[in-house]
């Protein structure tokens, strides 16, 4: 598996497996077990997903040494603040059945995320977390926390796919030695993603699917990807993206698909902020 090197020297797989919206714990344990069988070692979960225990069970039952995995979780809005964040991280480690985490992110830039980040820094210094970062931090809030934190975020996980490529945001992250990570690399199928003619034409040249072309494009840009699927055949397909490369011309062609805006939500929209902060109060 290809890796990226984070600012502190930690190696992170450039391809992982995400478990967002896999709410049934039995199903989640099953699909994570299948992903492990396929070869995935980076698993991305979150407190807000409610499935950390299933991820922990699958990893434990795999019989594979803990050090071969790269486990990511995220602190949810309702657990923001120094003390609550520490308690929630301890609970995450209990559910994931591990005494350390490879990466912990602040899930959303709401509530007392500065207090949360101080907790992450403390656990990082203690060796309980190998790398720390943020998620869904747009350039303005990302720069703010990067400038005023003792340990700059090592990862920022943001919506990144062919229709919202985060080109400028990635440049800003690179100024702070922060690794960009994509959530929603397939745009959750929006904009008729899987029937996109540009991606189909490029895929036909390489004998690859639309999904594989989309993942390959991001990987060649140095973006970490965590595609989610509950189908083993697609897990295998998503994993099979290291035996071909896109040409410079093909990369430029995919770049033209960039619409430079979210297909899901905007943190600049007051309604979105009220919705997300509301979730933070209720979960």
Automatic annotation (TrEMBL):
<comment type="similarity">
    <text>Belongs to the aldo/keto reductase family.</text>
</comment>
<feature type="domain" description="NADP-dependent oxidoreductase">
    <location>
        <begin position="16"/>
        <end position="258"/>
    </location>
</feature>
<protein>
    <submittedName>
        <fullName>Aldo/keto reductase</fullName>
    </submittedName>
</protein>
<feature type="active site" description="Proton donor">
    <location>
        <position position="49"/>
    </location>
</feature>
<dbReference type="InterPro" id="IPR023210">
    <property type="entry name" value="NADP_OxRdtase_dom"/>
</dbReference>
<feature type="site" description="Lowers pKa of active site Tyr">
    <location>
        <position position="74"/>
    </location>
</feature>
<dbReference type="InterPro" id="IPR018170">
    <property type="entry name" value="Aldo/ket_reductase_CS"/>
</dbReference>
<dbReference type="InterPro" id="IPR020471">
    <property type="entry name" value="AKR"/>
</dbReference>
<feature type="binding site">
    <location>
        <position position="107"/>
    </location>
    <ligand>
        <name>substrate</name>
    </ligand>
</feature>
<dbReference type="GO" id="GO:0016616">
    <property type="term" value="F:oxidoreductase activity, acting on the CH-OH group of donors, NAD or NADP as acceptor"/>
</dbReference>
<keyword id="KW-0560">Oxidoreductase</keyword>
<dbReference type="InterPro" id="IPR036812">
    <property type="entry name" value="NAD(P)_OxRdtase_dom_sf"/>
</dbReference>
<dbReference type="Pfam" id="PF00248">
    <property type="entry name" value="Aldo_ket_red"/>
</dbReference>
<keyword id="KW-0521">NADP</keyword>
